[in-house]
Each structure stands twice: as structure tokens, then as C-alpha cells.
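Box S1 | Example of a co-folding query
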Amino acid sequence: MNVAVFGAGYVGLVTGAVLAELGHRVVLVDVNEQKVEHIMAGIPPIFEQGLSELLTRVRGTDRLQATTQASQAVASSEIIFIAVGTPPLADGSPNLEYVHQAALAIGQGMVSGASYVIVNKATVPIGSANLVELWIEDGWSARYGTKPPADLFTVASNPEFLREGSAIHDTLYPDRIVLGADETWAMDRLTTLYQPIIAQSFVAPPETPRPQDRGPVPVIKTDRLSAEMIKYAANAFLSTKISFANEMANICERVGADIQTVMHGIGLDTRIGPKFLQAGVGWGGSCFGKDLSALIYTAKEYGYQPRLLESTQEVNKDQRLLVVKRLQDELKTLKGRRIALWGLSFKPGTDDLRDAPALSVIGELLRLNARVTVYDPVAMTNIQQQYPDLDIRYSESALEALDGADALVVLTEWDEFQRIPLATIAQALTQPILIDGRNLYDPKEARHLGIRYRGIGR
Ligand code: UDX
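Box S1 (continued) | Returned holo structure for uridine-5'-diphosphate-xylopyranose
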């Protein structure tokens, strides 16, 4: 099929590249010329496992193009994805300006005689499909001076559940595919597009092998509103699960229980499940915070106070700063103390700093007049470019960051950190204080080595 994807960010680029790999002809449309050039040269503009290999392969087949010219891409496409950013505004509602611009461009690029399924893949507020429809009509009217013919296009919702760091894997081997369309022909077209994934009939790429016992992928076919709501409900539930684990960790600490064992103990109940119960410095990333705020905003718009969701948010806010409280417990004043931070990205496997707990921790430490040294295996360039005014020291390696440090705080569970022996850490620090925000190390071993070790919930 001929597919256009507006927005060559995380979701758009990965979706486009995977669809091209499956045999579709895909044009990525992005306003950023440099990004387009990079993609055409086979260089991924983001750090994502397997993406470089995938781009090199599909580029060689001419099935993937990238352009800044929307109209050509639109005219000949059967399916057009909108996967542009929807960054949060100050009040928690998402900024739909990029969606608006994409929809206008789509309306202007369509030609009569064809039929288009326009798919919201960006996470947009419940009911946005209606807005997108109107904006597309505006685009068409601006070009042709009339209303678009009936049956020229329909807007569908197909939310995305990929995680950063395993984005290609999640796209090829999803737990489910959600299709929200109010017209049968659109539903049929989307089903055809995803058929290789639904049936798992494609040849698995060497760098992203198919997991064992992978059967056909369940497809939820529903109305647009329910599809939009599934995305929000999924992210709200996952972030609530983590905030729940963090709340349990705080209670475990007080009564003297071990959160790791407690969560293992509840996770074996198949009604609960073992995933997303890892207590730590709180959740971050480009989706959870933004989507939770948007859902809370929507609920309030309709006069409903979503108390559970607000608590999920509150618990997370406090959890991020728990490591700073731990430092104050150990060091008392933090003025002039040098604190080493390991890990900046919101989770391992990505250089993404969006809503990263590390940023909250750095902000709080600087506010308390501590001196901060940071190290991350992949996010160093990002922090320097995105936050050039931060008054912090950057290290070339994890161990170098410990030079002259009064304490170490671990914020991201990169494998690299786990491989460093605790004895080495103890020797390198001025004072052997280790605040383990991700429960990476064995508390007993740490204490045996004389380290003043503080984990989360144990
Ligand atoms: C998330 C959703 O998982 C994905 O389905 C959606 O499409 C986008 O948002 P992502 O942001 O890539 O994906 O990260 P994810 O792996 O879900 O982790 C989110 C945050 O939760 C990270 O900061 C991570 O450290 C934290 N987390 C996760 C925990 O603190 N504990 C856990 O048990 C799991």
C-alpha cells in the first residue's frame, strides 16, 4: 500500500520504517529539513536499537522516502498517518498546533477521485478525530474553494503503544493492535495494512527476532472514541501501577519489609502480573506524564474529578525527590557537597531526557546549592545541547564522575552501572554514600563493604 506519515519523530519514523520493511511504500513528511536529509542518508535522527540497520535496509529498496513536501506525499497515499508531536501546554492539555498544521496540509494535498484514510497515531485528546476532520476540510477548502466530496476521506484512530528502546520490537510484535474507525472501508484498509503483523507472516529482521510462541496478534476493532480512550487508559494504568509500587515501597521502608520481595509476591498473582511493579525514582518519559495530565484535564472538562489519577501524579512527583531527602539524611546540609549522578535518560536504552526524573533531581540539588557531576552512557550530548545553562560538571565515565564526590545517586538502571563492583565505588567516593534509586545493588553486600547504602523500599 501507499502510505504517508506526518512527523518523523519516534512514533512516525519507527512506524514508517517498519511498514516499509513489511513491503509498503512509505513517505515520511517532516518540516525539519535536516531530519529529512539524515533519514534519506540512512542515519537515524534518534537513538533506537535496530533502527539504523532497518533504515539502511529499507533505504536500499526505495520503499522509504522522506520529504518536506507534503502535497506530493498526500496525493497518492491510501493511508496517511498523523504522528506529529503533541507537547503539553502549561495547563496540562496537549498542544495540537502540529496536528492542526498536518491536517491542513493533508486537506490541501488530497485530490478528488481518490479515497484517504487519515489515521491519528499521535496521542490526541478524546474526540480529536472530529477536530482533525474539520481541519482537513479547511485545508481542502483553502485550495479548492469548496467542501470536499463525500467519501473522499475518513479519520480513524490507531493508537501506538511502542516503548522507547524497544520500539521496533514493539511495532513488529505488539500485544494488540487497536483500530478505531467509524467506516467499514477504512477498517478493512487498515486491517490489510497490518495483515503481515496480525498474521505474523513477515520474515523477522535479523536484529529484531520474533519472540518464541508468538501467535497471531489480537485486533481490537472499535469506534474512534473508544480507540482514543484505550491509549489513555493504558498509560494511566501503567503509571498508576508504578506509583502503586512506589507507595508500597514507602510503606515497606517504614515497617521494615523488602519491596522487591513484596512486588514479586503480588506479581505472581496472574490477575496482577509481574510487570511495571519496579519501585524507583518514579516514572518519566514523553508519554506517561503528558497523557496522564491530558486525561485529568479531559475528565475535569466533563466535570469529573479523577482522584486516583491525580494521586498517581502526586506520588510520582514526591518519589523523584526522595533520593534528595536520602542525601539530606546522610549528609545533612547539601551546600557545597559534590553529588555524583549516574544516569540521566528517563530509562535505559534511550538518550531521551523528556520528563526524566534526573532533571527534577538536578534542579532540586542545585536549588539546595549542592555541586553536581553527571554521567550517562548515551544522554551526555543531549543534556549539554538541551540544557546548556545548567551549572553542572560532565564526566567521561561512570568512575570519573565519582572523583571528589561525597555521594553517588543512581537514577537510571543502565547495565554498565551494575557491572561496576561495589568495592570500586566505595573506594572512589570521598564518603561511601550510595543512594540507589533503582535498587540495582545488593544492600547486604554494600553494607558489608562499609557503604552507607540506601535503596528504595528495602
Ligand atoms: C510508555 C508506554 O510503556 C508505551 O506503551 C507508550 O506507548 C509510551 O509510554 P516509554 O515512555 O517508552 O513507554 O517507557 P516505559 O518503558 O513504559 O517506562 C516509562 C517510565 O516508567 C520510565 O521512566 C521507567 O523507568 C519507569 N518504570 C517502568 C518504573 O519506574 N518502574 C517499572 O516497573 C516500569
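The chain has two domains: 2-220, 307-454. The chain has a mean pLDDT of 96.
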